[in-house]
């Protein structure tokens, strides 16, 4: 197995460029600070006093000694307040919460996409089936890092003193657990993930591998029910992670549609983007998607519109196109979130009473400070679906063209490579150290080759097809559940 091939060289080059170019050129920083997003500045106390028709109070040392502190400045809520707009720049981004996590994840996803595209071209030009697909490894790492980022955000919610966010995450986690247990008992005739064949391949190959290692009496102590229960627990965890991203997506979608009321084309694209997870769900419902296209009913006969292999390729293209559409509409959703500051001020004007000036300033500033968090909540679910699909294509031996690779057998032959023998010979004392180093390098490469060959023999493409297909479908399902609940919450419950 060629471990030090051109793929590894390109991968190391991409990692080095990402590390060195991050302080100077960052796609994540450009996304927020390219001048297309506008934030709202909080008003100063002098501006609020002028709008309220009174002078700015001067600090009184005698009152401060008597009362311990000055009374907060209050203004009427119905003042004619209009917030000043300013473009988001790189200096403003330094105050954003979780900005470093956002910048690192988005830049890593960009470079992972570049490495994946290179490996796809490389595999089409060169027959490199015996090499490790480095692009697929970058995609898997992006999925893991995305989940870790969502876990960091959820941990922030759990540390909140109010506790409402914690209850929302737990509620969606239990709901996701129930839905996952129902989905996992559905037959493959309806939801064609391929989990059953994937787990069968995994167990059979693992048993063969263990017996080849000399453990003839060893058997797998895990049953299918245990695996499905563990998978359902993972699904519940993912569902709790995607609770607030879905709720936030619903709010920004409604605000973005209202913000673009005079642009019908943008509104259509926004609705298509919001409903894209539903399309992903339908693509794996066999009677609706594959059976309808492969065996379309025409009277008493059936007509094959597309072949089964073509449908697999078409499904990959549809998911990628939907993810690109959602990424293209990122700016509209982020601007809709930033407009919440002015929307809150307009709502405040309709209320009676007085409000502290510091509360107005905190509210406007708080909305902007969480811009990177909102951006992560919008982008990370897209990354999960997109990179799970790319990993499904690479590790599942699918094709972007009209046909797919033939599905490998359930139990391939396990051929373990061995290190090339080193022939003894007479060497000089000066060359003895060099020869020992070369022998160590050869032994290390042989062990790594043996390890990767064992993994490829146990974790076959048929297993990866089932696992990543289910992961892609489940992320879309969680976002559909949380976003639809968010639409109901913001449209009906908030208005009542």
UniProtKB/TrEMBL annotation:
Presence of the UniProt keyword Lyase in the record: no
GO terms for cellular component: membrane
Transmembrane segments annotated in the record for this chain: 135-154, 166-186, 225-244, 265-285, 367-392, 462-489
Subcellular location per the Swiss-Prot or TrEMBL entry: Membrane
One Pfam family cited in the UniProt record for this chain: Tmemb_161AB
Membrane topology value: Multi-pass membrane protein
The protein, known as: Transmembrane protein 161A
Cleavable signal peptide: 1-28
UniProt KW keywords: Glycoprotein, Membrane, Signal, Transmembrane, Transmembrane helix
Source organism of this protein record: Sparus aurata (Gilthead sea bream)
Family per similarity comment: Belongs to the TMEM161 family.
Domain of life: Eukaryota
This protein's record includes keyword Signal: yes
């Amino acid at each position: 197995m060629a471990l030090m091939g051109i793929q590894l060289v390109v991968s190391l080059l991409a990692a080095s460029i990402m590390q060195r170019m991050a302080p100077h050129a960052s796609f994540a920083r450009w996304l927020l600070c390219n001048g297309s997003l506008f934030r709202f500045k909080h008003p100063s106390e002098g501006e609020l006093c002028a709008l309220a028709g009174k002078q700015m109070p001067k600090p009184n040392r005698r009152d401060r000694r008597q009362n311990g502190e000055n009374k907060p400045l209050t203004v009427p809520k119905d003042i004619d307040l209009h917030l000043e707009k300013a473009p988001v720049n790189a200096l403003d981004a330094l105050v954003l919460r979780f900005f470093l996590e956002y910048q690192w994840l988005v830049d890593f996803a960009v470079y992972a996409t570049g490495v994946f595209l290179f490996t796809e071209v490389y595999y089409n030009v060169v027959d490199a089936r015996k090499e490790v697909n480095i692009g697929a490894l970058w995609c898997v790492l992006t999925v893991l890092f995305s989940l870790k980022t969502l876990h960091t955000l959820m941990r922030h919610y759990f540390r909140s003193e109010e506790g409402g966010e914690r209850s929302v995450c737990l509620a969606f986690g239990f709901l996701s657990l129930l839905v996952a247990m129902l989905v996992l008992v559905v037959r493959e005739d309806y939801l064609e993930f391929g989990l059953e064949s994937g787990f069968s391949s995994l167990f059979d190959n693992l048993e063969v591998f263990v017996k080849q290692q000399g453990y003839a009496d060893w058997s797998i102590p895990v049953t299918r029910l245990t695996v499905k229960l563990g998978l359902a627990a993972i699904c519940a965890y993912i569902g709790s992670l995607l609770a607030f991203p879905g709720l936030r997506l619903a709010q920004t979608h409604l605000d973005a549609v209202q913000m673009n009321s005079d642009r019908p084309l943008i509104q259509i694209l926004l609705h298509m983007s919001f409903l894209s997870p539903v399309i992903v769900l339908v693509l794996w419902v066999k009677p609706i998607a594959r059976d309808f296209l492969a065996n379309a009913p025409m009277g008493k006969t059936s007509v094959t519109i597309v072949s089964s292999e073509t449908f697999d390729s078409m499904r990959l293209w549809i998911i990628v196109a939907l993810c690109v559409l959602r990424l293209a509409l990122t700016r509209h959703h982020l601007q809709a979130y930033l407009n919440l500051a002015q929307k809150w001020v307009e709502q405040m004007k309709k209320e009676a009473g007085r409000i502290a000036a510091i509360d107005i300033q905190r509210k406007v500033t708080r909305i902007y400070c969480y811009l990177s968090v909102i951006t992560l909540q919008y982008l990370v679910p897209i990354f999960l679906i997109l990179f799970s699909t790319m990993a499904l294509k690479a590790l599942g031996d699918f094709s972007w063209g009209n046909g797919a690779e033939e599905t490998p057998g359930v139990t391939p032959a396990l051929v373990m490579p061995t290190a090339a023998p080193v022939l003894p010979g007479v060497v000089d004392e000066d060359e003895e150290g060099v020869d020992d180093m070369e022998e160590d390098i050869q032994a290390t490469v042989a062990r790594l080759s043996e390890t990767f060959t064992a993994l490829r023999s146990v974790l076959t493409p048929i297993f990866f097809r089932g696992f990543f297909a289910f992961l892609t479908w489940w992320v879309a399902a969680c976002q559909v559940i949380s976003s639809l609940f968010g639409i109901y919450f913001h449209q009906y419950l908030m208005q009542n």
